[in-house]
Write a sequence for this structure.
């Protein structure tokens, strides 16, 4: 891989051990994937924040680093709401370690917003064609597909190295030839709200790592595209998809229809609801919405569904701190029901979820991850059912 004289000097340790280590990791990745050079990035989104997944080894690694990130950088969800962790039932020992991780990242100049939906923040924009180093799989999918930016699915350490150097290796989804659709998926029905998460769950399994091109009857909006991409990244490993006439790349480029084609019908989506939901939802002791983190519109939708109701079970709504702080009335309205709007964290990366036995979710990704990562059974349903049956919502 070609390195500029300045990059060579960093590799040789002339800019200190942190940048030397960061360069070694970026170059090693570049060599594996046959990148020709490093390219500048506009921003980084760094996973590996929850103490639950990082442990002491991760904390030690971050704490040893020096210097400052070269581009705007943001963190993925942590293991707790940084202000309301006690209400979640997180232990003081965990909270102390989690704060140390946040402070270690902060000392590298990384903004303390912990979210997997950085694209909803006023303060952190990405635009068509930008090269990025983002790591959370649903954020990567959204950046590539809905924004038309370019990022590989970085690991937490490689995103951090890219942030410190301000560059990433030029391979994978940074290159035109890897962004061409490989599988056409026709969706032969109208879809509503949570149908997109279930469609993503089915399509991700079929696509695996390939780039699908959807042909749809309905025109999905940004939150539906987010749900579709998050589920495909979890049930498969899809990091980029296109929707004909909707996503920016298909509006600007004429892709050849891929030779391989499949059709998904409403009956397949209904079958998932039946097989994975069944009556399980009545056994839920908790419900959670906000995987990926809620947009203002999704918070508004939850507030409308909980209007005039109280919930019996634990109901958690996850969003970024910036979105919660910018929408105080909606948050207040949701919390009047007894549900909690939590920031900086989520149902999958927080140890607080482990106390539940069965959670109702409206997300294909949470549905795929809760049993393995939290040992909590999951049922997927639309928001209304999650609130009413999973949360036990009833009129006041
Ligand atoms: Fe985000 Fe957590 Fe889901 S990081 S995508 S809310 S598993």
């Amino acid at each position: 891989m070609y390195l500029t004289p300045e990059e060579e000097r960093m590799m040789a340790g002339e800019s200190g051990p942190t940048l030397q280590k960061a360069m070694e990791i970026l170059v090693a990745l570049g060599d594996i994937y046959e990148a020709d050079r490093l390219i500048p990035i506009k921003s980084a989104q760094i996973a590996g924040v929850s103490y639950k997944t990082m442990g002491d080894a991760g904390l030690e690694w971050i704490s040893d680093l020096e210097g400052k990130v070269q581009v705007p950088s943001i963190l993925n969800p942590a293991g707790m709401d940084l202000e309301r962790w006690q209400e979640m039932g997180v232990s003081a020992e965990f909270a102390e370690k989690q704060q140390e991780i946040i402070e270690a990242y902060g000392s590298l100049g990384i903004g303390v917003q912990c979210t997997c939906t950085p694209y909803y923040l006023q303060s952190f924009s990405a635009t068509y064609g930008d090269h990025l180093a983002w790591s959370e799989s649903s954020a990567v999918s959204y950046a590539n597909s809905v924004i038309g930016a370019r990022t590989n699915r970085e690991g937490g350490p490689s995103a951090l190295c890219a942030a410190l150097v301000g560059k990433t290796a030029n391979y994978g989804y940074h290159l035109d030839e890897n962004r061409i659709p490989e599988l056409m998926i026709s969706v032969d029905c109208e879809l509503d709200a949570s149908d997109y998460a279930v469609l993503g769950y089915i399509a991700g399994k079929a696509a695996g790592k390939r780039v699908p091109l959807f042909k749809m009857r309905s025109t999905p909006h940004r939150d539906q595209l987010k749900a579709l991409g998050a589920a495909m990244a979890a049930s498969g490993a899809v990091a980029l998809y296109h929707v004909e006439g909707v996503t920016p790349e298909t509006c600007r480029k004429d892709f050849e229809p891929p030779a391989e084609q499949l059709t998904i019908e409403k009956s397949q989506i209904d079958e998932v609801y039946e097989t994975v939901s069944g009556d399980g939802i009545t056994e839920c002791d908790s419900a959670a919405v906000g995987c990926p983190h809620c947009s203002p519109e999704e918070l508004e939708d939850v507030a409308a569904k909980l209007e005039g109701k109280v919930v019996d079970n634990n109901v958690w709504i996850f969003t970024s701190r910036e979105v919660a702080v910018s929408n105080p009335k909606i948050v207040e309205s949701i919390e009047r029901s007894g549900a909690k709007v939590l920031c900086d964290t989520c149902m999958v990366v927080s140890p607080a979820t482990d106390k539940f036995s069965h959670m109702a979710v409206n997300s294909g990704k949470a549905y795929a991850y809760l049993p393995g990562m939290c040992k909590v059974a999951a049922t997927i349903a639309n928001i209304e059912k999650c609130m009413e049956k999973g949360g036990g919502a009833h009129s006041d």
Summary: The mean pLDDT is 95.
